[in-house]
Amino acid sequence: MIPDIKGEAHIVFEDGELHPHHNLYFVTSEQWELRALQAVLLSAVTRLFVATYSTKMRGGFLRFQAQYLRRIRLPLWDSVPKTLRDQLVDAATKRDMQACNRAAFALYGLNRDEQAALGGSGE
């Protein structure tokens, strides 16, 4: 689940027992493993996607609305190597933001300069 207005991505894994209400979105996937997707959504890569499209609110908050989240481009799950899949799942499960960034940077094939432009090398 994803709250609409936040300064940073706040992506919470919920296994389908709760029903989201006002200003709370939920994401499902028939292809991507949801924990791996959570890692990508927690990463600086997602923040860049959302910041590019979102109106910035007072205090620097971003709108994590459905129309912005839909614009995030993901590779096909079948094309993600098993080791990277495992890294994504592990990073999300531990809520290790640096590990989420490292795995997302690898997923998108970002070089050091591109990683630095997003706020770090993920190290």
Rounded radius of gyration (Å): 14 Å
Mean pLDDT: 83
Q: First CA to last CA: what distance?
A: 27 Å
**Biggest sheet details:** 2 strands, antiparallel
String of helices and strands: EEEHHEHHHH
Count of alpha/pi helices:
6
Descriptive overview:
The protein is built from 6 helices and 4 strands, in the order E-E-E-H-H-E-H-H-H-H. Helices cover 44% and strands 7% of the residues. The radius of gyration is 14 Å and the shape is globular. It has helices spanning 34-42, 44-53, 66-69, 82-94, 97-108, 112-117, and strands at 2-3, 5-6, 24-25, 62-63. Helix 4 (82-94) packs antiparallel against helix 5 (97-108). The protein is mainly alpha-helical. The model has no long low-confidence stretch (mean pLDDT 83). It has a two-stranded antiparallel ribbon. A two-stranded antiparallel ribbon has the order 2-4.
Summarize the entry for a quick read.
It contains six helices and four strands; from the N terminus they run βββααβαααα.
Strand-helix topology:
Elements: E1 2-3, E2 5-6, E3 24-25, H1 34-42, H2 44-53, E4 62-63, H3 66-69, H4 82-94, H5 97-108, H6 112-117
Antiparallel strand pairs: 1-3, 2-4
Helix pairs in contact: 1-4, 4-5
